[in-house]
Amino acid sequence: MSTSTDPVSREPSTKNPHHDVVDMRPTRFDLTSGFFLTLILFLGVIVSLMFLLWTVNRWASQSEIHHSPPVRTTFVDAGERGSEGNFDIPSAYEVQELTASSVQESLISVTTSANKTAHSLEELGDFSQTNSRFGHFGPDAGRGIPDAEFDIVPRFERWQLNFTASDRASYAAQLDHFKMELGVVGGGIQGLDIVAHLSTDPHSHRLLDTTKEKRLYFMWTTPNRFSEFEHTMLKQAAIELNDRLVVRLIPQDLENELAVAELEFAKEAGHESVTEIAKTVFQSVRVGDGFGFQVVDQRYR
Q1: In b/e form, how buried is each residue of 121-146, taking b as 16+ CB within 10 angstroms?
Q2: What's the CA gap between 280 and 274, in Å, rounded?
Q3: How would you write the pLDDT of the chain (301 residues) with one tens digit per residue?
Q4: Residues 271 and 263: beta-carbon distance below 8 Å
Q5: Which of 12, 221, 211, 20 lies closest to 110, judged by CA?
Q6: Are the beta carbons of 175 and 199 closer than 8 angstroms?
């Protein structure tokens, strides 16, 4: 018997049915999972970048707000009889845009619309100059402290009176409570027609010498529902309105009460003198069975 020392090599037979074959190709599940993982990673990077940009922009905005120097408005000289202030006086259009609502309108000085109504006052001679300058009818319109001498913004320039009323009866009741009267001038008619008792039985009397009327007065700058209420009341008193100017006459007692309330409000805000006040807004509010004016806003020079 012969023997051999050479090893005998054995190769696996491909025909062996028990041999395992591993398939390394990716499945559809692997491809889908990989796609979504890549998409999530991409979106995460985009969101992180957007958050970083938002954080940097917010920090820059806050830094600008906290560290930017305050801006001061240049003082404007309005002449010897004018006033100076560190705020921009709104135009007539801006005043109209800032009006609260159709049921709340503002009474402001006749001087702000003197240019629009000058044609109805030219025939009154000295009267037209007096009302456009002082807001009073009488020659001693600057009674009391001379505003120009003490550098005070005149009351007819700095005061604004607001009313709230749902109908003519409520508005007329407020005017009567404050003892305000309606005055009508111009239209080729000499003197001043004054109408009182507006909520009950409006009746009028004519003052031929307008220099005897010393009350402060205001007028509406734009037509509104309150001016329509007034026209109705004036027609009830048989007052001619064609080409005429309607004003509201403020009694002296009410003018003094408004001045006291204005100064008290300013002192509570840390302003001790009326010379510091540039604008005061009063609101008519119900007080018990009547009405009263309270200060709702105030601006300073």
Answers
A1: beebeebbebbbebbbbbeebbeeee
A2: 11
A3: 444 455 555 555 555 555 566 677 888 888 898 889 999 999 999 999 999 988 888 877 665 555 445 444 444 444 444 444 444 555 555 555 554 444 445 455 443 433 344 334 333 333 332 233 335 555 444 444 445 456 889 988 899 999 999 999 999 999 999 999 999 999 999 999 999 999 998 989 999 998 889 899 988 878 889 999 999 999 999 999 999 999 999 999 999 999 999 999 999 999 999 999 999 999 999 999 999 999 999 999 9
A4: no
A5: 221
A6: yes
Placement of tokens 């709702």 in the chain? 296
Q: To which residue do tokens 């005149």 refer?
A: 154
